[in-house]
Amino acid sequence: MNTSDELLKIHNLHTGFRIKDTFYDAVDGVSLTLRKNEILAIVGESGCGKSTLATSIIGLHDPNNTRVQGEIMFKNTNLATLSEEEFEQVRGSEISMIFQDPLSALNPLMRIGEQIEESLKYHTDMSKVKRNERVFELLRQVGINRPERVVKQFPHQLSGGMRQRVMIAIAIACKPQIIIADEPTTALDVTIQSQILDLLIDLQDETNAGILLITHDLGVVAEVADRVAVMYAGEIIEEAPVEELFKRPKHPYTRSLFNSIPQMNAHSGRLNVIEGIVPSLIHLPRTGCRFAPRISWLPDSVHEDHPTLHEVSPGHFVRCSCWEVFHFKSEIGGTTS
Amino acid sequence: MSFMQIKNLKVHYPIRGGFFNSIIDYVYAVDGISMEFEKGKAYGLVGESGCGKSTTGMAIIGLEKITSGSIMYEGEDVTNLRRKRNNLFNREIQMIFQDAHSSLNPRKRVEHLLAEPIRNFLRVSPKEEQKKISELLEIVGMPEDAKLKYPHEFSGGQKQRLGIARALATNPKLIIADEPVSALDLSVQAQVLNFMKDIQSEFGLSYLFISHDLGVVKHMCDHISIMYKGRFVETGTKEDIFTNPHHIYTKRLLSAIPNVSPKGREKRKRERIIVEKNYQTELKNYFDHNHRVLDLAPLSETHFVAIANGVSVRGNNS
Q1: Domain count of the fold of chain A
Q2: For A105-151, how does the pLDDT look when each residue is reduced to its tens digit (9 = 90+)?
Q3: Where do the structural domains in chain B lie, given as residue ranges?
Q4: Backbone dihedral angles phi then psi of residue B231, each to the nearest 5 degrees
Q5: Do B268 and A223 touch (CB under 8 A)?
Q6: Residue A209 lies in domain
Q7: Is residue A272 within 8 angstroms of chain B, CB to CB?
């Protein structure tokens, strides 16, 4: 993979929140690379820091109570150090975001047309007529058949799937190079979800944007992602191309996650359960393997003192050495039907 | 033999407006569904948001007024008894809610929360009550000292277990579970589902499992009904629905579910497009002129599909 394809390079990112004058890192030393024309999925359970990672990249956190350290390199600038004014040039035009809940992300008092036009007005010097044309074009692109009607409507007049389409239209309005989609389909029904996911893939084929997809749904990951990073307690514990990860997950946490999915095509038996709970931000041990308390039957000697990511096969990284003691009979990951 | 039968259940909400705020139309939230419940079995109710699946659950337990239809419980018509306290039906049908956090009173300790259903339905001395509470906590796998804690001190999975403990307090026969695991993380969801299966076999419980997640329903249920616009489009055993779906809506729903395997995803995408196209072209064979789902017609002893009599279902590339 040559380096000119790299859009976004995150190196050793720490994002901490202030709790009583101490900063606790929710994202703790994450390094990631997003390439052109790729969907990189970040998977993890609630509280693992995946959404914090997204808001750090796009600079949407509260500057008084958050601390961002490390490098987020985009076009030779470090986004982590930009001021709010400088960030406004990037946000919406070169990096844009799709939120989970379109109803609360859209302005209820503005017509759909104006909302899409807004970012064009701010970031481009198109004329009014050109902007209107572009709005119609965008709405058609996201699969809305009668744009002339929709532009005059308010968000509450649209269904959930339509609203999410409008959100996507806003996100792609200025042809951004990076789209961050934070749980874009979690609030939608499965039939609408599949339509929106198909739409995202089609749009990516047209624009060659890099998409950072944040989700907890491994099914969604399997359908759309090219590469996957699994997060646990603020760290990336496994990173691999999607086929590789679903075929040969290495880290015990990843394996457990797969085994706890009630699968459509598997026999109903008992589901796998991970012992213990996700540690809270304050009580998180900052040294050693963070997953160790949940596989407590293993001796300390199998863990590394300072776990790092190891490349076990090309492009497949696993943190800590504890995965080596697990022997599994067969490869997991669903069968094709 | 089934212990409870629901016949032609309807829940219609009036839409008011116009002159003198009179009733101008109705929302047909639940529009004529029939079900039977047998001991020890789990029934799944699946559908998209707004299809009326939660309303069905609410109507059965008596949190929602029934427009017409009847509910027979142990041979007795309980349709109008449901809203009265202290009858057998209210005691033996219990509910688990989606959001355990908001269904537990934040200002009461666990022992009060668990004592509430016991006090409502059983006449026991305070000592026996305490014993019963300890038993319940043991069943749901929580320590004795949880008694004196408040709901906010527990994690999401633990709160959901407290909700289940409350439902179990009165030795129910049927538990209506409305999206019990939708708000939980994957690993916690697995814990709760395993646990629900355990108590099912231990106490011979029946479940009405309301969910939009077909994976979860398939894992838990023996019998599945697919709902759309207040009516059943297809009902049958798990095998009937998953290996032999007949209604175009069921097919569309099944094709939309993400598969946990990246292999062959382009193929699945193409299939989805074909199914969607079929759905649009064959609408008129499956819905009447008001876009209402047709009546159920039997395909086999257990499998019922909403199709017009005489329409050949084999013709459309099933």
Answers
A1: 2
A2: 999 999 999 999 998 998 988 999 999 999 999 998 888 888 999 99
A3: 2-247
A4: -130, 155
A5: yes
A6: 3-232
A7: yes
